[in-house]
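Re: your question from the hallway

Yes, I did run it. Sequences:
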Amino acid sequence: MRSPRVKMRRRRYAARIAYDGTDFSGFQSQASGRTVQGVLQEALERLHRAPVPVVAAGRTDAGVHAEGQVIGFDSEHSSLDAGAFPRALNSNLPADVRVLRLWEAPEDFHPRYDARHRHYRYQLQCGESLNPMSRRYALWIPRAVDAGRLNELLAPLLGCHDFRAFAAAGDQSASKVRCVTTASAVPGRGLLNLRISGNAFLWTMVRSIVGTALMLEQQRAEPSAMQEILAAGDRSRIGAVAPPHGLFLERVDYND
Amino acid sequence: MRSPRVKMRRRRYAARIAYDGTDFSGFQSQASGRTVQGVLQEALERLHRAPVPVVAAGRTDAGVHAEGQVIGFDSEHSSLDAGAFPRALNSNLPADVRVLRLWEAPEDFHPRYDARHRHYRYQLQCGESLNPMSRRYALWIPRAVDAGRLNELLAPLLGCHDFRAFAAAGDQSASKVRCVTTASAVPGRGLLNLRISGNAFLWTMVRSIVGTALMLEQQRAEPSAMQEILAAGDRSRIGAVAPPHGLFLERVDYND
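Structure:
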């Protein structure tokens, strides 16, 4: 009698991952520099003894952190089903990247094109001195910040608008229309969190919104100022793009 | 007419400081290694052009963090009263140490001998994967931890006891009696916080308590087990001393 043989099948997998962006030149592999995609592909190649391309929901910039980035890749690896695979992957990854969960996805799943909703959080620490434990994870604003005014300034961004005023010059998107569903300032545990969610975002859009809101808050501007910048679509009127180390990709939502 | 002259007077100052212990060989200056006391004294010497000895409420071990350490030092520096001094001091300190507040203290103030109460927090992250942003600030326990049982195990420590079982071999204290006023496990924001407060602590006492509570929790031991270790005063029965990177000196209380 022949032993039963399982026919190897190529499956698509998805994983939720977290990383500390401090020591990465962003998510996406590039000619030089340590990238999240690079270390993930190296770990997967070590386990598969063959290259395994990885795709992500969002290509976070250098220094931006993630608590709930979603990646996808294909594999025939037999131990993937065993639940032991995330552990094997984590033991092949550096300490600043962790796989939180891994599951089999539909074979046509694409982490970026199928994403319905992205949730970002920008952490501010406001006041005289920065807590040294937050220095890699929050922007220090050495003054009191009016959270109520920030909320008023962010409100006009809610809804679907052409956000070209907040896009980096290099943004390649054909349409600059995006739908923002959350834009608010929420105090919590020594930090002021700016929560910004939407269906998708243009390049540097979240950090440009944060920088502009902070500039207008300091000027004690009315919410109409944000409204006017949005309507004019003029990059020259926005504030400085907020630095990456305060930004977290918190979660990505899919239909199922 | 002669211009009025202010007679320089030596004053005692106190400051509340925070530091990220990751890259320090502890608080206290020693023959080699970067210490918190060392960088504070260097910054003060630069501002005073003379050595300024610094004393602290608690000499935290290598790797232990502080959010509310209290230090004391003497100074005749004229700008100390101006409120600008904390800023000058911070601009002379590395980013992992910050002066949060500075005030003039009674001339016989001693940060250690006058301290009435010390509050520590030990951060645990329990579960399959460690959040990479917490890797320097929480001990990862790769399993579920029963917070209720931890609370039961910690309860017998409340009150004044001889804590020699939990002291490092090198502890020099004449009396090993200390009074613990808080010993509890409090879940919060992805972490399990062990809160331990008391009038004072023996060397490695907090981390020995944490290590022992975690050992007994894993063994599903009854609270009587902690009670017996305490009563026996036998170091050989305690758990491994928990690593320093989860420990925070949160606050020190004084009479006024």
